[in-house]
């Protein structure tokens, strides 16, 4: 990508080349562009000025956008679009961000600027991440990752892997998060990015603490602290790592080590001024750990101090935690009333800020200390935990971890023993030949698989086309039959009734007045019947049914067939706002096959009685959810079946997201999403 100075050089060269023929116009053009870029830079700087109110900063950014639109150079314009869209997210200017970033992505595609395409997706990911739309954030991080990897921009590739790992962690996909983080680590090691390596190891420590693999959590926290020694600007990183390490020791009931770690973090002389929130957290951690260890000296005083600071900062989560700790303290002193009051306050505040983890902790505490209402709180706790339960997948990619740790071991061995160099070289050559042979074999297999997939995709499209034609023929036949019945009614039955009525009308009925009235009544009735048959004939002949067939009719046909086989009830819910004729057959075929595979699994394994299928469209993101109430299964009991792998493979072909959530005796939910532009 050209720098701003390089663009200035190009403009200067063009100016010199044009002096002979058009010097006045050229001078004006360069002067105009220089003035304009100066103005844009000035507006962007104003938008970053924290001394100004938000509304003024937003207006400054809008001015920068207006001026950027009239620039002549697309590449310069695109550079500013990227900067403005990033600042728009920071200023929460949602509409401006969407407009500018869409322009940036469109212009980047036009210029075939892979770097800027990646940056535009990065900005989208940042926006969605800030607004807690984690699946969309992950999608755009992945798109950015693909573009940066394509141009071999290793630093940005690693950053996207880190962000992908963070998003996967938010969705409780700890296995995927672990794999992405190790890939990022490999690149950062190559680039000697000590600060980024620290952050990766620090996050791995948090992942393993969530997975309750505490030994690995300690290892990676200490690894993070080792890399932190190489960083000049440490900020409060060291203190946070020490705090994380202390929490791991606390969970292991190693209270002395935990207190030592917390106190070492608290020894930072200016921590109170730099991050008073964190300062209050450390005081609380130390006091609570002492309490757990049976040492109640000054515990109440320190907890009160932490509560006062957090209350002044309106730190709701911190207030909930410290009130819970105070409640446990009073319960240990047999002051049950005070303990219940504090735990209730913690629960109410957790409900107010909608923090589910704190709700569960507060309910569990109340069930222990409030004996009168224990069953009520415990029942609420179990209900809430069941509704929030998400399968925390512990099935790790062992090969990735072993390979990474083996590489580290080899590096350490080479440093300690140079005598093994020749053996290692010989081993490397042997492995190279084996790897080459293996690679050729794998490559041949992959080529066969690609050929098979190509043929399968072609077959799928032909089958889908035949299904459409079949449905169209059925609709056409039904329409023709309606027309035939209409004509028979109109030309045959109606004509005969009309003739009968006319004939009756000419008959002279002799009799009393009553017979004459009955004669006229029946004639009128015949005329009324004529009108009714004529109306029915017209309705039958009107083209109420179109020969065009939509995707949902085919899905409904599949559901009817499979639900009869599996003896379950299946409901289909699709938004009216989804225009299926605008969605490519490639997407519809793969979604159809995923539904087909999921229903087949319901028949074979799940023992479900209820299945719900839902289509939804969020902006350009098409979503499919398939949920059953069957027996469910565990991911860590056995390997994924071929059916699930096939569904995941189809989602990957669409560059989409595939997610399965299953709980024993509670059923299975399958979620698929992709952009309809695929």
Report on this structure.
The radius of gyration is 36 Å and the shape is extended. Helix 24 (585-606) links the parallel strand 1 and strand 2 (610-618). Among the domains are: 441-549; 551-675, Heat Shock Protein 90, CATH 3.30.565. A five-stranded mixed beta sheet has the order 1-2-3-5-4, with helices on one face. It has 25 helices and five strands. Mean pLDDT is 81; it is low at 1-32, 390-410 and 543-549. The protein is mainly alpha-helical.
Q: Provide the low-confidence segments as ranges.
A: 1-32, 390-410, 543-549
CATH topology of the domain at 551-675: Heat Shock Protein 90
Structural class: mainly alpha
Helix content: over 70%
Please provide the count of β strands: 5
Supply the CATH superfamily name of the domain at 551-675.
Histidine kinase-like ATPase, C-terminal domain
Strand content: 5-15%
Strand order of the largest sheet: 1-2-3-5-4
Please state the average pLDDT score.
81
State the helix count.
Answer: 25
Largest sheet: 5 strands, mixed
> End-to-end distance, in Å?
28 Å
> Based on CA inertia axes, which overall geometry fits?
extended
CATH architecture of the domain at 551-675: 2-Layer Sandwich
| CATH hierarchy, class of the domain at 551-675 | Alpha Beta
SSE string: HHHHHHHHHHHHHHHHHHHHHHHEHEEHEE
Quaternary arrangement of the chains shown? Answer: single chain
Radius of gyration: 36 Å
């Amino acid at each position: 990508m050209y720098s701003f100075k390089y663009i200035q050089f190009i403009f200067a060269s063009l100016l010199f080349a044009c002096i002979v023929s058009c010097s006045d116009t050229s001078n004006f053009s360069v002067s105009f562009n220089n003035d304009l870029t100066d103005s844009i830079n000035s507006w962007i700087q104003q938008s970053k000025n924290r001394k100004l109110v938000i509304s003024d900063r937003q207006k400054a950014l809008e001015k920068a956008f207006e001026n950027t639109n009239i620039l002549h150079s697309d590449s310069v314009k695109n550079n500013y679009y990227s900067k403005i869209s990033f600042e728009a997210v920071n200023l929460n200017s949602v509409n401006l961000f969407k407009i500018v970033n869409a322009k940036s992505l469109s212009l980047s595609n036009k210029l075939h600027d892979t770097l800027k395409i990646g940056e535009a997706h990065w900005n989208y990911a940042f926006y969605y991440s800030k607004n807690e739309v984690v699946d969309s954030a992950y999608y755009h991080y992945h798109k950015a990752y693909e573009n940066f990897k394509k141009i071999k921009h290793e630093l940005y590739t690693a950053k996207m892997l880190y962000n992908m790992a963070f998003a996967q962690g938010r969705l409780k996909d700890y296995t995927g998060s672990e794999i992405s983080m190790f890939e990022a680590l490999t690149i950062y090691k190559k680039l000697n990015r000590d600060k980024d390596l620290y952050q990766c190891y620090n996050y791995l420590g948090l992942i393993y603490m969530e997975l309750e693999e505490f030994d690995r959590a300690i290892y990676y926290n200490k690894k993070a602290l080792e890399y932190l020694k190489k960083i000049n600007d440490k900020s409060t990183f060291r203190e946070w790592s020490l705090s994380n390490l202390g929490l791991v020791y606390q969970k292991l009931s190693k209270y002395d080590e935990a207190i030592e770690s917390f106190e070492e973090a608290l020894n930072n002389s200016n921590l109170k001024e730099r991050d008073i929130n964190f300062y209050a957290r450390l005081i609380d951690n130390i006091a609570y750990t002492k309490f757990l260890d049976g040492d109640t000296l000054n515990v109440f005083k320190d907890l009160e101090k932490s509560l006062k600071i957090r209350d002044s900062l309106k730190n709701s989560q911190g207030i909930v935690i410290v009130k819970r700790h105070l409640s446990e303290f009073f319960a240990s002193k047999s002051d049950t009333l005070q303990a219940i009051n504090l735990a209730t306050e913690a629960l109410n505040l957790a409900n107010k800020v909608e923090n589910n983890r704190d709700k569960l902790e507060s309910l569990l505490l109340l069930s222990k200390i409030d004996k009168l209402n224990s069953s009520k709180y415990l029942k609420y706790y179990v209900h809430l935990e069941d509704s929030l339960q998400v399968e925390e997948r512990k099935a790790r990619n062992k090969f990735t971890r072993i390979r990474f740790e083996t590489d580290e071991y080899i590096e350490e061995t080479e440093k300690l023993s140079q005598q093994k160099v020749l053996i290692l070289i010989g081993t490397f050559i042997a492995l190279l030949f084996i790897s080459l042979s293996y690679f050729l074999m794998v490559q041949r297999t992959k080529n066969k698989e690609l050929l098979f997939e190509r043929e399968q995709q072609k077959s799928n499209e032909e089958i889908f086309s035949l299904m459409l034609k079949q449905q169209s023929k059925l609709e056409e036949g039904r329409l023709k039959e309606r027309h035939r019945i209409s004509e028979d009614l109109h030309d045959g039955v109606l004509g005969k009734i009309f003739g009968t009525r006319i004939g009756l009308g000419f008959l002279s009925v002799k009799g009393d007045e009553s017979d004459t009235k009955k004669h006229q009544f029946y004639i009128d009735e015949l005329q009324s019947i004529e009108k009714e048959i004529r109306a029915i004939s017209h309705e039958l002949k009107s083209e109420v049914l179109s020969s065009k067939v939509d995707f949902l009719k085919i899905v409904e046909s599949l559901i009817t067939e499979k639900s009869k086989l599996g003896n379950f009830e299946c409901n289909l819910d699709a938004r009216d706002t989804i225009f299926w004729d605008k969605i490519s057959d490639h997407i519809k075929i793969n979604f159809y096959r995923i539904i087909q595979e999921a229903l087949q699994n319901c028949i074979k394994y799940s023992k479900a009685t209820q299945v719900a299928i839902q289509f939804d469209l969020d902006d350009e993101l098409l979503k499919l959810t398939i949920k059953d109430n069957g027996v469910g299964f565990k991911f860590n009991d056995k390997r994924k079946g071929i059916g699930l792998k096939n569904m995941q493979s189809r989602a990957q072909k669409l560059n989409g997201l595939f997610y399965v959530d299953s709980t024993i005796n509670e059923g299975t939910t399958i979620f698929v999403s992709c952009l309809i532009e695929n």
